[in-house]
Amino acid sequence: MEYGFPLLSSLIFLPVIGAIGLLFIPRKEELEVKRFALLIAILEFFLSLPLWFGFDKTTSLMQFVEKKEWISSWNVYYYLGVDGISVLFVLLSTLITILCILVSWTAITEKIKEFFAALLFLEGVMIGVFCALDFFLFYIFWEAMLIPMYLIIGVWGGPGRLYATIKFFLYTLIGSLLMLVGIIMLYLKGGHTFDILKLASNSYDFKFQMILFWTFFAAFAVKVPMWPVHTWLPDAHTEAPAAGSVILAGILIKMGAYGFLRFSMPICPQATQAMTVPMLVLSVIAIIYGAVICLGQDDMKRLIAYSSVSHMGFVTLGIFALNYHGLEGAILQMINHGVVTGALFLSVGIIYEQTHTREISDYGGLATVTPIFAGFFLVFTLASIGFPSLNGFVGEFLILLGGFTAKTWAGFLGATGIIIGAGYMLWLYQRVFFMKVNEKVAGVRDINLREIITLLPMLILIFWIGIFPNTFLSYMHVSVTHLLDQVNQNASLAQTGPQAFLETAIRLIGG
Q1: How far apart are CA 407 and CA 412, in angstroms?
Q2: Could you write out the DSSP letters of every residue in 185-212?
Q3: Which residues of the chain carry a pLDDT beneath 50?
């Protein structure tokens, strides 16, 4: 679908221009800085609405396409477009940025204009990642995300921010450099083009696909993050300000799973088939490991961070189930996780601003002094554990359906993660909101109007997706079917299971 107005470019560069504009506002005009940042974010959200209303759900073709020659000597194009797999993430990015600005309104007290400039710049490059259809352009956006996120954690984070930022930077940079090797290999093998759609339409020998799969895996697994390359996430979440945690949970870690969907599966279909069982094993380990670790946490943000490892394990389980229900459930669960976990981090940030503690043992009886806040948090808790009629239930149900269809053991073990997840989330709620009122929180006020407005969109989405899931699933139906067709067309040429994994390793080692 062509679109006369360069909508995607506008969505990428409006917040970037807004970030630059912020730097010209005098530092002492703190309120004007906040208002300008909020105005840009709101304009960005409304500018993204044509993606929702103008999207054609009947085609798998890229829509709102923009393509201009950029570096002719390298055959690089400025090439943008969205389909049913990417469009919802662009919309989620524009919404979450508004909420991040609102939750930071009084929480950020130093270098205010630099903080909001970093937030707006990050929004622009995140949208660029979901829209890029040229590998060169994609890699620029992918790497550019590191800069503002590094600053948000490293400058405005907690006491351990230096360690957390270095760990975050090294993990993601090393993975990205390996992906760069894969991109260069693909460029040379695929006819000296960076066009993602053309490269996905080519056929590659099995050995090349396996090498490419693992170079991509290095970047995407870290970003998800999959076990065992997950250890940067709890540290980054714990030290990041509330807005940083929300962006991390809501958008950034979705880009790893998005990478599997956009690149690994269509470009390496045989390798994807051959690596199904190992990927399912890693996913199940992440689900159970992340959930069990949550039971031993006393820091609320750290608990929610480890729950993200578990929940993203469900996402990769759905992806590598390689069937219709699993894939749709995975994409929807990526949205759900962004909404629910983002809401939980917003809530922790709101209460932390008053109490200056995230230790669960410092709380107790909060429902007595903050009943409205307790009501919001209860809905977020129930959504996190997959309570029926809330959004988490739909995604997890589809993923487990896909998991049982692919491998019974994967569906069964994945379901145990839901049981453990209900345990740690309800135990968290009990310790924080019930029991005797802790004197440390006895004087805490209930949430104000700004904070209610911050949490309300998440509450609406939780019920909307939970009760009317097809509103969102309908955007991805055709694109998911097309993706499965791309993978399955070469299914007969690839074996799956442990035997294929061992044979592949022997073939690669032996050349």
Answers
A1: 9
A2: HHHHHTTS--BHHHHHHS---HHHHHHH
A3: 1, 491-499, 501, 504-506, 508-511
Provide the percentage of residues in the chain whose pLDDT is more than 90.
Answer: 68
For residue 54, give the DSSP letter.
S
Q: Pairing between strand 63-71 and 76-82?
A: antiparallel
How far apart, in whole angstroms, are the C-alpha atoms of residue 405 and residue 389? 24
Domain residue ranges of the chain, discontinuous segments joined by +? 275-467
Q: Which structure tokens are listed for 274? A: 């051959």
Q: How far apart are CA 380 and CA 148, in angstroms?
A: 28
Please state whether 71 falls in left (phi above 0), alpha (psi between -120 and 50) or beta.
beta
Alpha-carbon distance 352 to 115, whole Å?
19
Q: Please, which residues have CB within 8 angstroms of residue 5's CB and are 6 or more apart in sequence? A: none
Q: What is the signed CA dihedral for 288, 499, 480, 206, rounded to 10 degrees?
A: 130
pTM over 0.85: yes
In the numeric block, the tokens 């894939």 are attached to 327
